[in-house]
Design goal:
By secondary structure, the protein is an alpha/beta fold. The chain has four helices and five strands, in the order βαβαβαβαβ. Helices cover 33% and strands 22% of the residues. The chain has a five-stranded parallel beta sheet with strand order 3-2-1-4-5, sandwiched between helices. Helix 3 packs parallel to helix 4. It is globular and about 30 Å long. The termini are far apart.
């Protein structure tokens, strides 16, 4: 229904991605992912009900059916030449696994 909150996931929430989540705090933050566990720890603590992951693929495998929308933010480490870790690679994986998810990509 229009009155229900969205279930939100965040990929890359340790740095600037955390500010993207702040704009969505009126919704349910259900899953968070960042490869840098230490840098993301503050964000993980801020949303204690969200499940946390270091690998976005594992998060999607386990949570895709529970996610309505999400944000993706990658710092320089996330912009490697390895196809699956590029912005486009992650976006394709998200869209393929979470068919009903709306995604906000932050370059």
């Amino acid at each position: 229904s229009a009155n229900e909150k969205l279930d939100i996931a965040g990929i890359g929430v340790g740095g600037r991605g955390a500010s993207d989540l702040r704009a969505l705090e009126s919704e349910n933050i259900v899953a968070l992912c960042d490869v840098d566990w230490e840098k993301a720890s503050r964000t993980f603590k801020k949303y204690p009900n969200a499940k946390t992951y270091q690998d976005f693929r594992r998060m999607l495998d386990k949570e895709a059916k529970n996610i309505d929308a999400g944000t993706i933010f990658l710092g320089l480490r996330g912009r490697s030449s390895v196809k699956e870790y590029t912005m486009g690679g992650i976006t394709r994986k998200v869209l393929n696994q979470a068919e009903n998810m709306a995604v906000c990509i932050v370059p």
